[in-house]
Amino acid sequence: MKLCGYEVGEQQPFFLISGPCVVESEKLTMEIAESLKEMTDRLGIPYIFKASYDKANRSSHDSYRGPGIAEGLRILEKVRTEIGVPVLTDIHEDSPLDEVAAVADVLQTPAFLCRQTNFIQSIAKLGRPVNIKKGQFLAPWDMGNVVNKAKATGNQDIMVCERGYTFGYNNLVSDMRGLATMRDTGCPVVFDATHSVQLPGGQGNASGGERQHVPVLARAAVAAGVSGLFMESHPNPAEALSDGPNSWPVHRMEELLKILMDIDNAVKANPYLESTL
Amino acid sequence: MKLCGYEVGEQQPFFLISGPCVVESEKLTMEIAESLKEMTDRLGIPYIFKASYDKANRSSHDSYRGPGIAEGLRILEKVRTEIGVPVLTDIHEDSPLDEVAAVADVLQTPAFLCRQTNFIQSIAKLGRPVNIKKGQFLAPWDMGNVVNKAKATGNQDIMVCERGYTFGYNNLVSDMRGLATMRDTGCPVVFDATHSVQLPGGQGNASGGERQHVPVLARAAVAAGVSGLFMESHPNPAEALSDGPNSWPVHRMEELLKILMDIDNAVKANPYLESTL
Amino acid sequence: MKLCGYEVGEQQPFFLISGPCVVESEKLTMEIAESLKEMTDRLGIPYIFKASYDKANRSSHDSYRGPGIAEGLRILEKVRTEIGVPVLTDIHEDSPLDEVAAVADVLQTPAFLCRQTNFIQSIAKLGRPVNIKKGQFLAPWDMGNVVNKAKATGNQDIMVCERGYTFGYNNLVSDMRGLATMRDTGCPVVFDATHSVQLPGGQGNASGGERQHVPVLARAAVAAGVSGLFMESHPNPAEALSDGPNSWPVHRMEELLKILMDIDNAVKANPYLESTL
Amino acid sequence: MKLCGYEVGEQQPFFLISGPCVVESEKLTMEIAESLKEMTDRLGIPYIFKASYDKANRSSHDSYRGPGIAEGLRILEKVRTEIGVPVLTDIHEDSPLDEVAAVADVLQTPAFLCRQTNFIQSIAKLGRPVNIKKGQFLAPWDMGNVVNKAKATGNQDIMVCERGYTFGYNNLVSDMRGLATMRDTGCPVVFDATHSVQLPGGQGNASGGERQHVPVLARAAVAAGVSGLFMESHPNPAEALSDGPNSWPVHRMEELLKILMDIDNAVKANPYLESTL
């Protein structure tokens, strides 16, 4: 499939979706986008900037949720035009859909909402590529039904994204088998390496995270075989206003990407063995 | 707390929420409500009728979703006035909130949406008692944050409901410890004994269910200690248009309720031992 | 089935297996046995004393393992003859089988060993009733194979015991559906309410436990329907040399048993609904 | 650490343990060993032959368990001397330890037995390198206690092996984070890519398996970072007498190993990012 001008798919080099969890300030947002754009240009990795403008599903109602829709979209638009990078943002049931779709090159639906038929279809109808996050409660093979609902709208540019599966309380596990299974949907499979290391609710009023496992899971997922990678990044994760514990530092991103590219090349040099049994 | 005129709580006899998963026909809906009303009157159980008018989160987009909002609410209103029983229905992000709240005595939020802050708060603001289903991905102690969000609207009539927790793929487990844990929210705890026996996605394009486990889990939950029970029921589950595999037959409901009452009486004759350690 | 002179089974009142995790001193062991014997006589509950003489599978190799075989069996024999109560102890691959079977009225096999065919069969061959603990990794329906192996030795006095199932890391869940499922083995089903509240490995060098959930799970299991209950008990759990965090205080046992008896009576007054669907 | 003459460790190229689940015939055993020896010589991969002589923990007591100890050890000895490859076999509580250790270059302990202190220590005392399989119920960080018990015997040649973790009923999940976590034991970490795709008990009287996931998990684990790989192999898995569904075909092994080597090289070219955060 064609995504923001790039050919993407299970035998293509991986693309990257990265940026801060949430828009904090215009300055910081521009800086992150610029760093990542330069880095991925250097490496030849197709890159899409990501940031949310409103986090509607924080653990606690006291948490920072973002700058709001107007300011958030203005900044995303600026990233898009001034840095020259396509942007992805997530969208919720009560988002002003057309306004968001007017700015975002790619839309992303939250994992908790993957079974809301009306919602998935109204997002798909906007005609933008959609990255559908798989619910933490949904088996990989059950994404087929979700994709069918989305594609029934006529939009064929659908991606599916793993972000960890419920594993006891306050923990997620990333089942690498699921990445291979989801290829059967015919959609590009994306692995979200930063939300997958979250410990949901693990800090009382917020979700914890284990940043040290980001490179472990990212390497494993690329080796399992994915079309794209999603990784939230921040210049200073310890001070990020959302998802800091599981964000990856911008200044450590390039060395991570290099290793991932080497793995990706090794894996995609030939067809997947599992599909030739 | 006072619920539809009944005093409910952890030391009160349990109340029952029951009815078909979805409104099928007016005639059938009235018949079920009438049977259950008579039965619970006979047994002295506080009773609330339940039915959905639109199932937005079916596994497949070909499944029956209900009669739609107008017809659905008309029938619920009829149940309310002609049978004289309070009614509960579930509500979604795109429901016409005021219309639904005008008819329903109690509102119920879907498990998948328990972390959507805006949604939970906009429902709580309607001023009706709300039964918040705990997500299949949420630890029992994390319902405290959800309740806080809801009560921050001023509405103090909040209930929390267990309906099974993600347990590997296509299966749910009901952790009885969680029922005790959720009492710490200060809200009445409800156990949903029919969705808890679902096998999500377990039938390809639909969710399966193991009806034979309904009485097992209902007995266990009442013994663990709950304020209310939720059980979907149908005169002929094999022909139900939604959730048939996990619905309980109306004609077997009375004998089940009698046993549950005996257990409930035994358990609530004294304070819970676990709170006096 | 006949167990130590008592008729036990799914429609009989529950029997109790209880005592300290491990034999600490002769004096303490006798005191516990005497207290529990008097209590269960008063309540009319068939009672079997339980203690281990050597805990071979402690988390850390520095933990107390018991007084050893000779001293342990001597004390168990004394409980048996002086208090007049049958005794159960657990047995391992390297136990002197005949020596243990000469003293113990009932043998119990550890959960981790439930799939060791040779072991299960050599224990069953001893001709004593055997309580086989289900592994924390074994589905309830897979106990059928384990029972078949045991009964193939000719010994028909086999019981199956649930003690919690692996649920993410360092946690166990008790699936009440499994108690009903295991009745299909034709064996009496026992619920272990104290090991089920363990948090395996949850304290670094030892397993943690949540004592407050013992009555919750015990009530739930009796309501689900069991033939027997297993609960480790100690006069002062905070000072127990093993499994303290999940032991139940002896002086709170009688009030717990009374509630459980009331639930048991309610549940067994009629056949299980789930078997008449 | 030095293993059968090879330097192994987290920054060394991976070694391979492979062979049939169980010794079937002498002829077949020799053929497999010869094929794998030639292949790994060609690729420069340190190789250890693996086969069991007696499977004591089959699901059903009717399953094939192997040729028995005498014949089994004779064949392993022949593999060792005639093919010139070190051999690994698994050992149980009732194995004649000295006899087995006299033949096997490496010993392996079954996952279910990882918490049996006496057993682990009596195996470690034999002085051979030991590959300790992590129980399907044990958190990765809890292997530290197991390793301490083993090393307390004086034997420092201990390896730890992941073979899947209990994930609901009849399923296992391989948590790639655990491979990184287990490096903290200081022991070489081995990933068992064939038992990890088992569906325990999933076929009623036997365990099922999903062979197509072997290359997926093997790639992912090598990318996560391991010292060694364990993969059962058979010339004709459909006719294997044990573990056929999850065995990897010998004639597809070389192409799999080549990809794994490329990934391994990419990953080990630099220190793990997760250890430099």
From TrEMBL, chains A, B, C, D:
The lineage of its organism: Bacteria, Pseudomonadati, Pseudomonadota, Gammaproteobacteria, Thiotrichales. SUPFAM superfamilies: Aldolase. InterPro entries: Aldolase_TIM, DAHP1/KDSA, KDO8P_synthase. One of its GO terms (molecular function) is 3-deoxy-8-phosphooctulonate synthase activity. It comes from Leucothrix arctica. Belongs to the KdsA family. Keywords: Cytoplasm, Lipopolysaccharide biosynthesis, Transferase. It is found in: Cytoplasm. GO terms for cellular component: cytoplasm. One of its GO terms (biological process) is keto-3-deoxy-D-manno-octulosonic acid biosynthetic process. Gene3D superfamilies: Aldolase class I. Residues 8-268 form the DAHP synthetase I/KDSA domain. This is 2-dehydro-3-deoxyphosphooctonate aldolase. Its EC number is 2.5.1.55. It catalyses: D-arabinose 5-phosphate + phosphoenolpyruvate + H2O = 3-deoxy-alpha-D-manno-2-octulosonate-8-phosphate + phosphate. It holds the Pfam family DAHP_synth_1. The gene is kdsA. It is an enzyme of class 2 (transferase). Pathway: Carbohydrate biosynthesis; 3-deoxy-D-manno-octulosonate biosynthesis; 3-deoxy-D-manno-octulosonate from D-ribulose 5-phosphate: step 2/3; Bacterial outer membrane biogenesis; lipopolysaccharide biosynthesis.
